Amino acid sequence: MSNPVQSSTQPIVTHRPYTHIAKAVVVGDAAVGKTSLLVRYVKGLFNPTYVLTIGVAFNIKDIVVGEHVLRMQIWDTGGQERFGPIRQLYYRGTKGVLLVYDRSSEASFDRIDYWLKEVKKGAGAVPMVLVGNKADLPSKVPAQAARKFAKEHSMFFVETSAKDDTNVDSAFNELAKSILNAVV
Ligand code: G3D
Ligand code: MG
Q1: What is the 3-state secondary structure (H, E, C) of the chain?
Q2: What confidence tens digit (pLDDT) does each residue in 100-122 have?
Q3: 133 lines ligand 1 (CB under 6 A)
Q4: CATH number, domain 12-183
Q5: pLDDT band for position 11 (50/70/90)?
Q6: From the CB of 89, is ligand 1 less than 6 Å away?
Q7: Ligand at shortest distance from the CA of 34
Q8: Taking the C-alpha atoms of 39, 31, 27 and 142 in order, what is their torsion angle to the nearest 10 degrees?
Q9: Ligand 1, from 36, 100, 108, 112: best to mutate by most atoms within 8 Å of Cβ?
Q10: Model confidence at 9: pLDDT above 60
Q11: 36 CA distance to ligand 1 centroid (A)?
């Protein structure tokens, strides 16, 4: 990791030793922007072709939340969106999940319910954050519907753009906060 980055929403990246460690996974349909969000969050980049092609097994980020430092290992699905049985392995030991859809695709939002069920089966009732990505594009998914879904399932909801770097930090930071709330 290079320089510490100050985020707009309180938790900050730090070189303090971590006090907690947790695995998190990013799920959602293919092409909603999961890899882009992860690459934006961890590396501060958008669309470096080599990263999207090769994929990332997982990335690590240390996040300060109050007196705690959470080392979050964030797993990407590595292009396995269509291979359910393989995905079950990703969920093992997961303490938090980013559920991602594409705001410009109604179909990707309709599938969130499916992803939620799959995650619950594989990881149990872990904290989740609902993420509507591609906020830079015209929306086909009303924020109201997404907010309602998030509320029903006690999740934080945020609209992001990995492209414009909008709310990407808050999405991951909110997940970090919920993970810590669940364990401390
Ligand atoms: P995935 O990992 O969920 O499969 P990717 O999705 O991160 O590979 O992204 C799929 C496509 O959506 C990529 O475009 C990527 O550049 C684009 N994308 C990701 N996030 C955003 C965003 O916030 N806004 C916009 N406009 N596009 C985004 P390509 O063209 O490479 O397929
Ligand atoms: Mg991907």
Answers
A1: CCCCCCCCCCCCECCCCCCEEEEEEEECCCCCCHHHHHHHHHHCCCCCHHHHHHCCCEEEEEEEECCEEEEEEEECCCCCCCCHHHHHHHHCCEEEEEEEEECCCHHHHHCHHHHHHHHHHHHCCCCEEEEEECCCCCCCCCHHHHHHHHHHCCCEEEECECCCCECHHHHHHHHHHHHHHHHC
A2: 999 999 999 999 999 999 999 99
A3: yes
A4: 3.40.50.300
A5: low
A6: no
A7: 1
A8: 110
A9: 36
A10: no
A11: 6
Q: Judge if the beta carbon of residue 38 lies within 6 A of ligand 1.
A: no
For residue 105, the ligand closest to its alpha carbon is: 1
Which atom from ligand 1 is nearest to the alpha carbon of 32? Answer: 3
pLDDT band at residue 3 using 50, 70 and 90 as cut-offs: very low
pTM: 0.89
Per domain, the residue ranges of the chain are 12-183
